[in-house]
């Protein structure tokens, strides 16, 4: 039965890797539906205790990858090693993995208690132990007093908690979460994000979350894998993805960014002077990976762009050289904490600058058609292959 | 509320229309049948007495009322022929309904799991037999099941039997006919509940450690119970009163209540006993009907 599986903790025995050690190894996994290659040769290693996010637009294969981990789809190629054992062909009920479904998939004919106890009963756990574990789970997700309710007598947030408790009850080695917060409204979603992170830390469990919401992935995950057309485009910490995107596509997918197509490049010590059509010559720090012969662009995040009425002193060719661009304010978008200005550069391009509203009174605000100098340092620029 | 006000509002009229229908086409005829069941057979036109004659005055009507009796019901209760007919009807109906459920459930389940565009095709295939007259289809079965019919020809050709098997005029033939005729009524409500069931529920069950048979018994089947209830009643109730299929396909040594009723009414011209038998049948069928009603109400309350 299920509790004979290595690493299943339902029966109290445990043989799972310690935090920080590799838990899951995905090697060259691929899945094709008809002629559509949903997952195309994904390799990935996830360590025990990680909160890993699979991020990507719809149809990128992230859900298919998750469903293969749960066992609902069998990969056509590749291996999936959990604690060293290949689970690629194991049936869903044989895996020490549990999943929280997008629309929760709570059993409508069972009470909250029976929903949470479902997986424990299947594992042949003793009745008294089940009662203890259910009570523990109910307390964990703060659902005390609702044990006898049916799912349709609960609010959306409560249903989400039941789904979480049900998936956690078996203490899986790996918890999969398929868009777990998509059905909640914004405020509740933000609170729940915090609670999920806190829970994951406290239980020391390994979570893999699938989401299309890059903010959600950035907030919660310790590492993010960005997927595009069935392939992993980049894996890294949220900061790595944001500040050092590997391609133009990732830079645009994760957050806002200004992009200028390069036309020429010139080495200047540790820097490159890159000629662009829309923003003139830009001084950028030399990228770690040499820029190839192909097309590339210079990218700068809006919040790295500073605005002022007059530019700071800068000497071209000097170590402290910064990029100064003249323009006029073309559009203002007030967002509360920040204001996004669109600057029409004299060189022809458009530049977005995000400025923190650090003072309540708008003495520092710029008005439409006002002349400004936009400036940023070479280190704030990223050179991206197109 | 005056009648004029009710009919002035179409919505209100629509609300009472079903009741008007029930009174006119169920309650009033039922009253006639009930009255005939309390009468005695007579060689007359109509073939029973007393007959209410509203023109004959008050005393005549009172004596007509006094002439009513429950003798026919006593007869039905005391005569083995009727008791056996009821028992046989119920046995046949229970057996047939179980067969229908066992055969219909996998078909409905398979349909619900087909790709969407094939579901519509399967649906048409289930309904298509209705385009041919029911009687013709039963006669076709006589052809298939008779001594030198298609079934025996196939069995002989495949050397599965050495002699033609007697199918016709057996209970087997009757069950084949009933299952064949009523299968759509079992499949359609089952399909409707199974098709709208979220597939993620079965996945969640297997994710939580349930092997396939437990997924079925703990999740799929309990959640399909409303469909099972509807299908069972849609088949059980008409099969109890079934007349044509047992008459054409089953042997004549034991009769179902529908056949007995027909004999009383047309052969014996005993309208009162036939009416009493019909009333008893209705009472027998009331139990599952009330059950269904309660089931439906509980389902509504849960939503």
UniProtKB/TrEMBL annotation, chain A:
| Entry superkingdom | Bacteria
Check the record and name the InterPro entries matching this protein. AAA+_ATPase, ABC_SmlMolc_Importer, ABC_transporter-like_ATP-bd, ABC_transporter-like_CS, Mo/tungstate-bd_C_term_dom, P-loop_NTPase, PotA-like, Transp-assoc_OB_typ2
Which GO BP terms apply? putrescine transport
Listed Gene3D superfamilies: 2.40.50.100, P-loop containing nucleotide triphosphate hydrolases
Q: Name one GO cellular component term.
A: ATP-binding cassette (ABC) transporter complex
The record's listing under Pfam families reads: ABC_tran (PF00005), TOBE_2 (PF08402)
User: Which molecular-function annotations from GO does this UniProt entry contain?
Assistant: ABC-type polyamine transporter activity; ATP binding; ATP hydrolysis activity
Q: What is its EC number?
A: 7.6.2.11
Q: ABC transporter domain spans which residues?
A: 24-254
Keyword annotations = ATP-binding, Cell inner membrane, Cell membrane, Membrane, Nucleotide-binding, Translocase, Transport
Instruction: Report whether Transmembrane helix shows up as a keyword of the record.
Output: no
Q: What does the record give as the reaction this protein catalyses?
A: ATP + H2O + polyamine-[polyamine-binding protein]Side 1 = ADP + phosphate + polyamineSide 2 + [polyamine-binding protein]Side 1
**What binding partners and quaternary form does the record give?**
The complex is composed of two ATP-binding proteins (PotA), two transmembrane proteins (PotB and PotC) and a solute-binding protein (PotD).
Functional description taken from the UniProt entry: Part of the ABC transporter complex PotABCD involved in spermidine/putrescine import. Responsible for energy coupling to the transport system. Involved in beta-(1-->2)glucan export. Transmembrane domains (TMD) form a pore in the inner membrane and the ATP-binding domain (NBD) is responsible for energy generation.
Could you say which protein family the record assigns here?
A: Belongs to the ABC transporter superfamily. Spermidine/putrescine importer (TC 3.A.1.11.1) family.
Q: State the protein's name.
A: Spermidine/putrescine import ATP-binding protein PotA
TrEMBL record, chain B:
Q: Name one GO biological process term.
A: transmembrane transport
Q: Say if the entry is tagged with keyword Heme.
A: no
The protein's matches in InterPro entries, at most eight in alphabetical order, are given as: MetI-like (IPR000515), MetI-like_sf (IPR035906)
Recorded topology in the membrane: Multi-pass membrane protein
* Residues passing through the membrane, by range: 12-34, 85-108, 120-142, 173-194, 215-240, 271-292
- What are the subcellular locations of this protein? Cell membrane
One Pfam family name is BPD_transp_1
According to the UniProt record, one GO cellular component term is: plasma membrane
- Which controlled-vocabulary keywords does the entry list? Cell membrane, Membrane, Transmembrane, Transmembrane helix, Transport
* SUPFAM superfamilies documented for this protein: MetI-like
Which stretches make up the ABC transmembrane type-1 domain? 86-292
PANTHER family found in the cross-reference section: INNER MEMBRANE ABC TRANSPORTER PERMEASE PROTEIN YDCU-RELATED-RELATED, PUTRESCINE TRANSPORT SYSTEM PERMEASE PROTEIN POTH
Q: Which family does it belong to?
A: Belongs to the binding-protein-dependent transport system permease family. CysTW subfamily.
What is the protein's name according to its record? Answer: ABC transporter permease
Name its species: Bradyrhizobium zhengyangense
Organism ancestry: Bacteria, Pseudomonadati, Pseudomonadota, Alphaproteobacteria, Hyphomicrobiales
């Amino acid at each position: 039965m299920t509790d004979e599986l290595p690493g299943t903790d339902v029966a109290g025995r445990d043989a799972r890797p310690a935090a920080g050690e590799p838990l899951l190894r995905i090697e060259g996994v691929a899945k094709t539906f008809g002629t559509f290659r949903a997952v195309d040769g994904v390799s990935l290693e996830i360590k025990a205790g990680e909160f890993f996010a699979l991020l990507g637009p719809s149809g990128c294969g992230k859900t298919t990858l998750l469903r293969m981990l749960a066992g609902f789809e069998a990969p056509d190629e590749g291996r999936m090693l959990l604690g060293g054992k290949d689970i690629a062909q194991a049936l869903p009920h044989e895996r020490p993995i549990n999943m929280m479904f997008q629309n929760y998939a709570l059993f409508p004919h069972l009470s909250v208690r029976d929903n949470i106890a479902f997986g424990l009963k299947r594992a042949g756990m003793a009745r008294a132990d089940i009662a203890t574990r259910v009570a523990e789970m109910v307390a964990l997700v703060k659902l005390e007093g609702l044990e006898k309710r049916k799912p349709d007598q609960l609010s959306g947030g409560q249903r989400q908690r039941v789904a979480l408790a049900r998936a956690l009850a078996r203490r899986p080695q790996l918890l999969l979460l398929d868009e777990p917060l998509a059905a909640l409204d914004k405020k509740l979603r933000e609170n729940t994000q915090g609670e999920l992170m806190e829970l994951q830390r406290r239980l020391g469990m390994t979570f893999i979350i699938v989401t299309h919401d890059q903010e959600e992935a950035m907030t919660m995950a310790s590492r993010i894998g960005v997927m595009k057309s069935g392939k992993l485009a980049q894996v890294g910490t949220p900061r790595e993805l944001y500040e050092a995107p590997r391609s133009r596509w990732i830079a645009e997918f994760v957050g806002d960014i200004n992009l200028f197509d390069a036309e020429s490049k010139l080495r200047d010590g540790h820097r490159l002077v890159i000629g662009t059509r829309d923003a003139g010559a830009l001084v950028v720090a030399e990228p770690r990976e040499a820029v190839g012969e192909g097309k590339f662009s210079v990218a700068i995040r809006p919040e790295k762009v500073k605005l002022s009425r007059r530019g700071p002193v800068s000497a071209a060719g000097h170590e402290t050289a910064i990029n100064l661009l003249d323009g006029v304010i073309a559009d203002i978008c007030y967002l509360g904490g920040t204001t996004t200005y669109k600057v029409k550069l004299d060189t022809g391009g458009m530049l977005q600058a995000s400025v923190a509203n650090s003072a309540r009174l708008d003495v520092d605000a710029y008005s439409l058609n006002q002349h400004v100098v936009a400036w940023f340092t070479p280190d704030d620029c990223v050179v991206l292959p197109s | 509320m005056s009648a004029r006000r009710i009919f002035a509002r179409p919505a209100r009229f629509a609300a009472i229309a079903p009741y008007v229908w029930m009174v006119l086409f169920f309650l009033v005829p039922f009253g006639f049948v009930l009255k005939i069941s309390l009468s005695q057979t007579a060689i007359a036109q109509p073939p029973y007495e007393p007959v209410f004659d509203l023109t004959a005055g008050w005393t005549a009507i009172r004596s007509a009322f006094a002439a009513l009796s429950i003798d026919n019901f006593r007869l039905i209760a005391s005569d083995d022929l009727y008791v056996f007919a009821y028992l046989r009807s119920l046995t046949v109906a229970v057996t047939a309904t179980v067969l229908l459920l066992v055969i219909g459930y996998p078909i409905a389940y398979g349909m619900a799991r087909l790709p969407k565009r094939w579901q519509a095709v399967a649906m048409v295939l289930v309904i298509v037999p209705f385009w041919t007259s029911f009687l013709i289809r039963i006669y076709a079965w006589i052809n298939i099941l008779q001594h030198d019919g298609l079934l025996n020809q196939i069995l002989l050709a495949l050397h599965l039997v050495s002699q033609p098997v007697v199918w016709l005029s057996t209970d087997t033939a009757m069950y084949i006919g009933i299952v064949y005729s009523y299968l759509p009524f079992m499949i359609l409500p089952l399909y409707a509940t199974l098709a709208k069931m979220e597939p993620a529920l079965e996945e969640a069950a297997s994710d939580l450690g349930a092997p396939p048979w437990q997924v079925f018994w703990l999740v799929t089947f309990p959640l399909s119970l409303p469909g099972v209830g509807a299908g069972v009643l849609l088949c059980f109730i008409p099969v109890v009163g079934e007349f044509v299929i047992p008459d054409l396909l089953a042997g004549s040594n034991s009769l179902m209540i529908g056949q007995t009723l027909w004999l009383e009414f047309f052969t014996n011209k005993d309208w009162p006993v036939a009416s009493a038998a019909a009333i008893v049948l209705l009472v027998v069928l009331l139990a599952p009907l009330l059950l269904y009603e309660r089931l439906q109400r509980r389902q509504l309350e849960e939503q």
